[in-house]
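ingest -> fold -> write
write: protein_1
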Amino acid sequence: MEEELLTSNSKKNVFSQLCTRISQWYQGVVDKTVPWRKGRWVAAILLIAGFLARVLLAQGWYIVTYALGIYHLNLFIAFLTPKIDPAMDFDGDEGGPELPTRANEEFRPFIRRLPEFKFWYSVTKSTLIGLICTFFDCFNIPVFWPILVMYFITLFCITMKRQIRHMIKYRYLPFTHGKPKYQGHEETTGKVIISPK
């Protein structure tokens, strides 16, 4: 009896160690992709294109495609939204707090609710799951796909209109391209000296 318990415990221990090693290896592979932003997104776009080619060639799995599109839309909205929503952080002013518009105002960087890496990771993982679903007939539910396309376009337009209004109202831009970069004054020695105000 004791030998059976020891054998079953050692099997569980070996399985647990194997799962731990696999998860550590997987996390290491994922961590190595962090600096390769352009490459990651190219791979994700190619994966989405492969998924769409599979759906178009097979002429099915429109519900899976619709669900994947809605999920990607929600991820994109979270990517565009600030982590601390200015609409919720209301301190009594008429319009609520706003991001700085002049150089002498307090610097508050734009922090996303969903960081870029997690956005990419979720898009890639969900697209892989959607691609796997296209190999099972139980997910191929017959629907009239033009209605799903029109509903998705309508939902996309309404959601983006609301998001753009939010961006205009609270004066933030979720992209760093074209934003001013502030630097200190440099001496000839190469040291940076920040002058007091």
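write: protein_2
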Amino acid sequence: MASKTTYKELFPDAVIGYSGHESGTEISLAAVSIGAKILERHITLDHTLKGSDHKSSLNEPQLKSLVSEIRRIERAMGCHIKTLQSCEMQCKKKS
């Protein structure tokens, strides 16, 4: 299994993306959590429409949920620059 940083190591100047053609959003979320900055997902108005892409496409509520979860992951990952937050001031004063 390749490390989660393989593409970033091989292509340090490239923006890493993921093209998802699976049902659900878990794999797309995993891609974001390891650094994907661009996602390609198909959308549909109806999963039962004719054509192979509709079954694995996202409908509007699923797309909204995916975006919301991506934003949640981004907040959880934080920033590599650490600064003292106002809510931490009281604890710092104790030390």
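write: annotation protein_2
The chain is about 45% helix and 10% strand.
Residues 8 and 84 are 29 Å apart (CA to CA).
pipeline exit 0
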